[in-house]
Amino acid sequence: MSISIIVSRLVHSGQEIPLKEWQEYVENNPTLRLCEDENSAVNPVTKEVIKMKRPEGASEIKVDDEWKNFLWWSRGELYARYHPDFDNPISPLRQAVVSAARRFSSQIITDVDDTPLDW
Are 100 and 119 in contact (CB under 8 A)? Predict the structure, then answer.
């Protein structure tokens, strides 16, 4: 089981984050970009390359000159798979989630429950 971080305003206001507004936010942030390509991974047993379509509104963040998977949009909320950097309050990855939550007047919750994280 993996935990997901969710940036949501549905819980407290019932409003969705519009896809277009999320895309504009990403496009106007120099450390973020929208993902246009497929996600790929190599099967460690067969060495076969497996390609999967990325979720709508998927983004990447540039950290230490490397692009990493970041948030994706789904049904009016932003999602990220848990990353160990989220445990560090000064991590650029965590700070970027906090910035997005502030921009969209949203709370940061998990898929475990709706209790807002104190970030």
Answer: no
Task: Give the DSSP per-residue string, 36-92.
Answer: -S-EEEE-TTT--EEEEPPPTT-EEEEETTEEEE--EEETTEEEEE--GGGG-TT-H
| Sign, Cα dihedral of 64, 69, 6, 113 | negative
The answer on pLDDT for 1 being more than 60 is: no
Closest CA to 74 of 1, 117, 16, 14: 16
Confidence class of residue 21 from pLDDT cuts 50, 70 and 90? very high
CA distances for 117 relative to 6, 28, 106, angstroms? 10, 26, 11
What integer pLDDT is reported at residue 2 of this predicted model?
Answer: 64
pTM of the model: 0.84
Secondary structure class of 6 (helix, strand, coil): strand
Q: Give the tokens for residue 38.
A: 């497929």
Summarize pLDDT for 54-98 with one digit per residue, the tens.
778 999 999 999 999 999 999 999 999 999 999 999 999 999 999
